[in-house]
Each structure stands twice: as C-alpha cells, then as structure tokens.
Description:
two-stranded antiparallel sheet
Amino acid sequence: MKMNKRQKTKNKKLGFTLVELLVVMAILGILAVVTLGNFRTSQIKARDAQRKSDLRQISNALEAYYNDYAGYPDSDSSGMIKACSCGDGDLACTWNDPGQREFCDENNTVYMSMVPGDPLSDPSHSYCYYSEGNLYRLYAILENENDPEATLDVSCGVISNYNFGISSANTSPEPTPIP
C-alpha cells in the first residue's frame, strides 16, 4: 500500500527529533550556568558593600564617642569594642547580636543601637576592632578578592586574613601586627 504525500508529511510533524531536543537542552544548560554565576557574583558584591557600609557606620559612632571623651573605647583581645555596658561595667560589644546592649558610655549615651556584624554571621568572617585609645582600626574580610579596596593582609585577634580596613584619621589601616 502506497502512502500519498499528505500522509508522509503528517507523520514527520508528530514530534521533535532527538538532536533538536539535545540542542535545546544544551542551550538551556549554558544559560543556567551563566545566570547562576552572575547571581553568585552579585551576592558577593552586595555582602562586600554591606561590610564597607557597616565599618563606616561603626567609624561614625567611634568618632562621636571620641568627640565626647577625647579618646576611643578600648578593644578586647578578641577584636571587639569594650563599650557596650551603658554604665554597668566594661563589657565588649558582640558583633551583630540582636540581644546585645547598645554601644554606649557610662552616662547611657547611645552611639549605636546595635553594633553590626558580618553578613555571613560566620565566626571566621567576624569584624575586628583594635584601639590604643588615641587611634582605632576596623577590619573586615571582603569576599571579592578583585575589589580594588581589598588590599590588606592583616591579622587581628585570632583571624589572620583581613583584607579591608578603615581607621581613625591619625593612622592608617595598614598596621604593624596587632596582638
């Protein structure tokens, strides 16, 4: 039995060939890889921008404290600010702790309602503060190593790979080794 042209054409249009499906799947796979890579890079840059902003906010609070006391609050051995007691002693501020008391002085003057911490909330990415009373240095670890501001290689407390820092105007963020 012979098929006419109409029947042959009808049989060919029933679906996609395996090659066509493989080509479409390969294109979709390439697009997914490119999109996910860009998304991850955007997340890293956003966290780094948050770190820089946090350190600038802490710096502003430290400068306000300096204006009141002609000195910066002390740092503890783990790289925290020792000024979160509000008159109840000499307690260190905990980075990014919602239950933490404010960064304040013995007169209950609040300089920051909550001291921010690294967006990853990972102890190996904690911010670090160092002060000698007349100067301070603040450090963070930027994830984007290609960031033009990620130029330091500093140890502070127990962490040794800080690559971004800001400091009081009378010093540089590039210190001699910090204990």
